[in-house]
Design a protein that fits this description.
Layout: H1 12-23, E1 53-54, H2 67-72, H3 86-89, E2 98-103, E3 109-112, H4 113-119, E4 124-131, E5 136-146, H5 148-154, E6 162-167, E7 187-191, H6 192-196, E8 201-206, E9 209-210, E10 220-222, E11 235-241, H7 248-252, E12 276-279, E13 286-287, H8 295-298, H9 306-309
Parallel strand pairs: 1-4, 2-11, 5-12
Antiparallel strand pairs: 2-3, 4-5, 5-8, 6-7, 6-11, 8-9, 8-10, 12-13
Bound molecules: ligand MTE.
The site of ligand MTE has 16 residues, from loops.
């Protein structure tokens, strides 16, 4: 239900565009967000890596989503199942933040995020389309670095076939993690070829600033050709493994949230169509594109798999 109690404090144009966007959302376990104003402290402060240099290879023919929409309508089940968790997420302490990269690698490492950014040579900005499995989408400028850059210094062994990502586990800070029907922590996985793809991105920022907590601070995955649940937030561990990791959503509902999760308008979710999507803040629904429009960059990774996997490839 709408929670209008703070709406007078929200500028009218934001209030209207959010209201229109939220009204049109289809499918999914969508608990509608409250309409609120918010203090600037929930957005990251600038540091020496910001503002990032734009990588002009990654531009899209869509309007950039309004920052306030992209940063207040968020999915982060650790803080609750509504979209309106940004205030609660602000309690997560993200500095310092250690990331462990281990498993089938020659040089495992545990490193603070700011040291990691120095090690990979800083950050760049890329504008990507982003499509949630719930059929809403946004277009945002992410900043961070290509995921493949970490491979060069941890040196995966030839036996490493997949990457398994894990989010923090701290139920005292993240009340959603007290709900033990979810198999916490949040886990996601991709193949090593997917990790090497140019599009795979470890984001540390959005809209030219550090990520606000609700968008996955201090470090989250962004895989623009896959449904958004693959883009795991607030990562504490990346393990190189030889077996396909099972994601948290896949564990709960394997027929709804499969491993591949490549965006495909022709394969409906069991409970709703994927043929169109609602861009946050935009009036009309638009057709969804195969691989979210990134087929020329990613389709070749799946061609060999298609005969056996058929439609499940995209689930
Ligand atoms: N990562 C964690 N740890 N927890 C989550 O609940 N939600 C996923 C993904 N990553 C989620 C997560 C889903 S369903 C989506 S659509 C995207 O984050 C949303 O990213 P955004 O909130 O920055 O738009």
């Amino acid at each position: 239900m709408w929670d209008l109690k703070d709406f007078q404090t929200t500028p009218e144009h934001i209030f209207k565009s959010r209201r229109q966007a939220l009204k049109k959302l289809a499918g999914g376990s969508i608990a509608l967000a409250g309409l609120t104003s918010f203090p600037s402290s929930v957005f990251g402060n600038a540091n020496s890596f910001y503002p990032p240099v734009s990588n002009t290879l990654y531009k899209v023919n869509r309007e950039i989503t309004e920052e306030k929409l992209a940063t207040t309508y968020t999915n982060f089940y650790e803080f609750g199942s509504s979209k309106n968790i940004w205030r609660r997420a602000a309690f997560l302490k993200t500095k310092p933040w250690m990331l462990t990269i281990d498993g089938l690698v020659k040089k495992p490492v545990t490193i603070d995020i700011s040291d990691l950014l120095k090690k990979v040579g800083g950050i760049e900005e890329r504008v990507y389309r982003f499509r949630c499995v719930e059929a809403w989408s946004m277009t945002v400028p992410w900043s961070g670095f290509p995921l493949k850059n970490i491979l060069s210094f941890v040196e995966p062994k030839t036996s490493a076939k997949f990457l398994r990502f894990e989010t923090f586990f701290d139920p005292d800070v993240a009340p959603g993690q007290k709900q033990n029907w979810y198999p916490w922590p949040y886990v996601e996985g991709i193949t090593i070829d997917e990790a090497k793809n140019d599009l795979s991105f470890l984001a540390t920022g959005i809209y030219g600033k550090e990520l606000p907590n609700q968008n996955g601070a201090p470090c989250r995955l962004v895989l623009p050709w896959k449904y958004g649940f693959k883009s795991i937030k607030s990562i504490v561990k990346i393990s190189f493994v030889d077996k396909k990791p099972q994601g948290m959503w896949e564990r709960i509902a394997p027929l709804e949230y499969g491993f591949w999760a490549n965006v495909n308008p022709n394969v409906p979710h069991p409970r709703w169509s994927q043929s169109t999507e609602q861009q946050l803040g935009v009036d009309n629904r638009v057709p969804t594109m195969i691989y979210n429009g990134y087929g020329s960059e990613v389709a070749s990774m799946y061609n060999a798999l298609q005969p056996t996997l058929k439609n499940s490839l995209f689930r």
